[in-house]
Structure formats: structure tokens, C-alpha cells
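Q: A reviewer asked whether we had any structural model of the full assembly, not just the individual parts. We don't, so I'm hoping you can provide one. Inputs are below.
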Amino acid sequence: MNMGKVTCDIGISVDGFVAGPNQRLEEPLGEGAERLHRWMFEQPDANAEVIEKITDAGAFIMGRNMFGPVRGGWGGSDWRGWWGEEPPYHAPVFVLTHHGREPVPMKGGTTFNFVTDGIESAMAKAREAAGDRDVAVAGGAQTVNQYLAAGLIDELRLHIAPVVLGAGERLFADVGDPGLEPVAVSHTDLVTHVTYRVGR
Amino acid sequence: MNMGKVTCDIGISVDGFVAGPNQRLEEPLGEGAERLHRWMFEQPDANAEVIEKITDAGAFIMGRNMFGPVRGGWGGSDWRGWWGEEPPYHAPVFVLTHHGREPVPMKGGTTFNFVTDGIESAMAKAREAAGDRDVAVAGGAQTVNQYLAAGLIDELRLHIAPVVLGAGERLFADVGDPGLEPVAVSHTDLVTHVTYRVGR
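A: Here is a predicted structure for the entire assembly that you could use as a starting point for your response.
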């Protein structure tokens, strides 16, 4: 069986931040960071092809902060993600966490699975679930940086918003040089899309 | 008379640095930063159009560090820039410095002029010298950031090298949000060129 690629789509400011400063429940991406994603919400047609690819994967991996704001163990929390009853993934999602929890099936084919034994284990599980389709590392910054540092991402798709955040979470922090090669670019007035092939 | 644009071409790493750490005389752009410019030296033909535009201006402005490594006053220094007897500018160059010095004429039309009364004065002088041609802010990072913060750049052309520097001088540090709009993109395997229109 052919294996799919491991992809990663991430929105980033022109000065290299993927989330603004002072992240909190009311502003989970930090101050000003909603401007990173204006192109998705204001220009869904002009960016349709790019947007479609973001969720075109057989399995997803995300960090605990991306799944939800719950600190410490899950306790009695029944948090089911930010995305309502039918999340846009339509596939298994593997959430990296230190705290185990039973899988949470959602409408439309998304199931949130909780992985407590590290990024490589999560990748193995996602690969298996995805079959010959791609695995998408969905974020946030720390999770993407961990996978980049481990050399486990094949294709990085940066969506560079023309905004300066000035502070926040930096993509590429402490990842070494992942070996990037730009293979495709496009733009609208609200975003520049750059696809990088990754590999030393 | 029509006024030209104020442009700025600058090479930048994918993580937002325009110079590496530990800049010194032997390595004026800092560690690893020569990789920012591989596209210019290894792919002059594929990037010919972009390269030609970099020096297509009627006057240039640069910071003192870009002109040379001389610290403090000029003293008896006869430093004439990094570029040999015939620099690639072929036009007046205005060097921002705290220390006045007589103009230094070079071969091929370049004259280095030394401006001690600030960035707006340098811009006025460059505008006058350029006539209806463009004025190019040639670098380095601090100079570009000062002009961005002052709202004096019309077109910012980023040449994004697919390398991670991890540390060094950051473009966009403390500039606020300059109001960027991507208007053109292209790439080779060694660089992504993004032209931004600037203006709040």
C-alpha cells in the first residue's frame, strides 16, 4: 500500500508568528491573530482550492491546546473541541495530551482520539488510520515545531497573512533547519500561499 | 514632475530574520546568512528580472552598518564600501550616520553621501536626487524597520529564502503594522519573491 504524505497547513504572520500574544479562552489564538485568517473567512471562493486541501486528509494530529482550553487532566470535562457537533475533519483526529481519555466520536466521521505516548506514536496511529491518504498535522505551533524538528513533515503549506503581530508563538522556534524547498506559490490581497517540500 | 516609488528589497529567512546572529567583520551578515542570498549567486538567470529591479533606482539609502564596519567617527578611515571601485548602484547613495564625511565618488556613477540629520532628511535628499525615478531603501534591517515604522516605504519586496536562521536581526521589529498587501509572487527552489504594497 502506498503511504500518503504528512502535510501541515498553518497560517503565519509576515513576521513569523502563528499565534498572537496573550492567548486565553476568549481569544484562543492570541491578540490580533484573527487577522491571520481573514483570507479564509472573507475570500472563501478565491481561496477555495487551498481551503479544500486543508481538510483533505485521512487523519489529523493536533496539540492539546488546539483541541481545547482544558488545563491539567480532563477531570469531569466533556469538552468536545471548538468546532461544534460536526467538526470539519471528517476523519480520525489524534490529540496529543498527557491525560488519557476515551475517544469522542462526533458527527460526520470525526473522532477525537487522545494519545499520551508522544508524537511518534500519534504519527503511527494516524498513518494507520489514514491508509493511503495524507496525514495532516493541524497545529498549533508547538506541535508543528515538534514534528518539524523530528523530520516527520513532508509538505509544509504556509499561509502568510500580510500582518505584523510583533509577538506571540513563533513557527520554526528551535526546529533546526528542516530543509525547505518552495514548490508552489499563489496569492490574493489577503494572503500569500507558499508550499514547501520538507526534507534534509 | 512625477515622483517615483520608495522601494525596498530585502532577503529574509522563512522565520523572519534578515541577518544571522554574531555579525562581525568577517561575516557581516551574521552566521548562516549567506544562505539567504544563494538564489542571487546560484540562479542569476532564473532570478534575472528580480535582481535587475533591486538596483533599478535613481537613488539609494542605506544604514551605516550596511556601508561599512567602521565604528564611531570615520577618523582617518578611507573606507569606501564593500563593493569595490565600481559599486552596483550607479546612482547617489545616502548613508545614514552620526558622523559627517565628504561625499565619496566611485566609478560608474555611484557617489556615497553621508547624512547626519535623520531618515526623513535622507529621504528628501534621495527623492531630489532620484527625480522621477524610484528611491530604494537598501538596508540593513534597522534602517528598513525605521522607514517602515515611519510609513515611508511604498513597495516592500521580500525575498524569502527557505532557510531557518533561528536568531539574528528581525525585519518588522517594533514597526507596528505597516499595512501590507501582497501584489505579486513568484519562486524558484531557492527563494520565494513576494511584493507587498505598503500603506495603512
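A: Points you may want to mention in the reply: Chain A touches chain B through 32 residues (CB under 8 Å). The helical segments of chain A are 38-42, 48-54, 64-67, 119-130, 141-149.
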